[in-house]
Write a structure and sequence with these properties.
3 domains, 29% helix, alpha+beta
Length: 549
């Protein structure tokens, strides 16, 4: 039987964290004779080499290669590519793991759409992963019609012949961002990239001791030297203009501006902050024209302008102001309707624990150079954000607590401008109703309800709640989508969560009245509250989310 997928796992001293990776690879729904697993041990000094050798002796689909330490993951991945026999090559890190059907689903999706690259939905356990990219399936994605550039880790499936035809391999040796160089070129040269979003394929895991390679402090000079190499790839395969600016914007936004914002900056040692800032300033003035920063959100534009002007102290002051901004979401209605759980809520931003207010009625004006001072920066952000109120969005996601798998739920929302005093300032309140489909709750466990709001330069999430005790809706359990689903309020914070298939043992008895309980001798008879939805929702996985054109 031809090998469909070769899974390449670079390995260096993972210890016990490799076990979840191994287990997930052996549980794959793809038949064992249709995929292979290649562990490339990069000079581990723990017990991992012996563990992997024993595994390979017992499992015909597993191969283990040993080499001297190369300093990073690039060379082990390249050795894996050269050894691979599969039609596709999938890269997995030794402390991460796959969904049980990941290889089968990604391979089938990729071959169905002739993809050179297949990007599977990711979940982050203590690690950030792209969110907007996985809002829906993209069978034919490009860097122009989908936010592909937001996902530059190598944890994807690549057609082996494509890699060989264009001679694509990872940069080797001790370095950073080798995956950015590799994945960016793959995106720009692929005939097609397919994004599979209706199943969590890859679980990106932060170790309990935060010892993952990507969490170690990096040398700013070396890091931004490697970042320039990724920019070189963009320059090689694009022409000057809006597309190149938009791609460059990803590195300005993610690798520079976001590192200089709010608590993320303030948590760093003071001397390290300044060292990072100095390297970022050099890249900005050397490589980015005005069109790159112009496409950022208001708060990001301020940081980028201050960075270009080499004004670190003002960046720090702006970060201290932003650190006080948070999202709040208040539940207003939770009830079963026709097989779905209808969740009503309102959401708004706060600053220093008070509702955030904005200057209303001011037309948008471009940021003409760096703001004069902190007050000017805040005033411009306030006015520009108010002018963008019509772009504010609200979403509700359900996230499984143990695995971090999450899914967007359909939401309808309105925007309300609420006067906030006599000086013309207003608050923006989003009123929303979400329809939670039990079919999205694909496994037993506790699923938390999270609200996500995009406004101006902020995209923040928060748990839905707390719900005031006196006005707290108490819907019963329902048998829906093949699952028993019980909405409940967590203790002590009163956030909305969904118990699927009695993961917590809750019975939902809080809404019973005393006259519903009967006693007979030493026994009590209590009716279990439940709802039988009028329209049963579709079974899990019967229909994927909407597909992008």
């Amino acid at each position: 039987m031809p090998i469909k997928v070769s899974v390449v796992v670079p390995v260096y001293n993972p210890g016990v964290y490799v076990e979840d990776c191994i287990d997930s690879l052996l549980r794959q729904s793809l038949p064992p004779d249709e995929y292979e697993v290649i562990f490339v041990d990069d000079g581990s000094t723990d017990d991992t080499p012996a563990r992997l050798d024993a595994l390979a002796a017992a499992e015909p689909r597993v191969t283990v290669l040993h080499q001297e330490n190369s300093g990073w993951s690039g060379k082990p991945r390249n050795v894996g590519i050269d050894t691979a026999r599969g039609e596709y090559v999938m890269f997995v890190d030794n402390d991460d793991h796959l969904g049980d059907e990941a290889l089968e689903r990604m391979y089938d999706y990729g071959t169905a759409h002739g993809a050179d690259v297949v990007v599977g939905k990711m979940a982050g356990k203590g690690r950030g992963v792209p969110v907007e990219l996985f809002r829906r399936n993209h069978p034919r994605a490009t860097v122009e019609n989908a936010p592909l550039i937001d996902s530059l880790t190598p944890h994807k499936m690549f057609r082996r012949a494509f890699l060989d035809d264009i001679g694509l391999r990872f940069p080797e040796g001790p370095r950073r961002l080798e995956d950015h160089v590799f994945v960016t070129e793959a995106y720009l040269r692929a005939a097609n990239v397919s994004v599979l979003s209706d199943y969590v394929c890859y679980y990106h895991v932060r170790r309990d001791d935060a010892s993952n390679a990507g969490f170690q402090r990096f040398d700013p000079g070396g890091y931004f030297k490697n970042l320039r190499e990724a920019l070189d790839v963009v320059e090689q395969y694009t022409e000057p203009g809006p597309l190149r600016d938009r791609l460059f914007r990803r590195w300005l936004r993610v690798e520079m501006v976001e590192r200089m914002r709010a608590r993320r900056l303030l948590a760093l040692p003071a001397d390290y902050r300044r060292e990072l800032f100095g390297e970022m300033h050099q890249v900005v003035v050397e490589r980015f024209g005005p069109g790159v920063a112009a496409g950022l959100q208001p708060t990001q534009q301020v940081v980028a302008a201050l960075m270009a002007a080499d004004r670190y102290d003002d960046v720090e002051a702006f970060a201290e102001w932003e650190a006080g901004i948070a999202l709040t979401a208040v539940p207003e209605r939770v009830a079963w309707e026709d097989g779905t759980l209808r969740v009503g809520f309102s959401a708004e931003y706060t600053s220093a624990a008070e509702p955030m207010t904005f200057v209303a009625g001011t037309p948008r004006t471009p940021l003409d150079g760096p703001p004069e001072d902190l007050a000017a920066a805040i005033a411009w952000v306030s006015a520009d954000t108010a002018a963008r109120f019509g772009q504010a969005t609200a979403d509700l996601l359900v996230r499984e607590r143990a695995s971090a798998a999450q899914y967007f739920q359909p939401v309808e929302f309105t925007r309300e401008e609420v006067p906030a005093g006599d000086d013309g300032r207003v608050r923006l309140v989003l009123h929303a109703t979400a329809a939670v489909d039990p079919a999205a709750l694909t496994r037993a466990g506790v699923w938390d309800a999270l609200v996500r709001v995009r406004l101006g330069g902020w995209t923040k999430e928060c748990r839905l709640g707390p719900a005031p005790r006196g006005a707290r809706p108490t819907p019963s359990a329902a048998l829906a989508g093949g699952h028993v689903v019980l909405p409940y309020w967590t203790s002590p914070h009163a956030h909305l969560a969904l118990d699927v298939d009695r993961a917590t043992g809750r019975l939902g008895l809080g809404a019973l009245s005393l006259d519903e309980v009967t006693a007979s001798g030493d026994r009590l008879r209590i009716p279990l509250p439940s709802t039988s939805p009028a329209t049963a929702p579709r079974p899990p996985c019967a229909s994927p989310p909407p597909t992008a054109p």
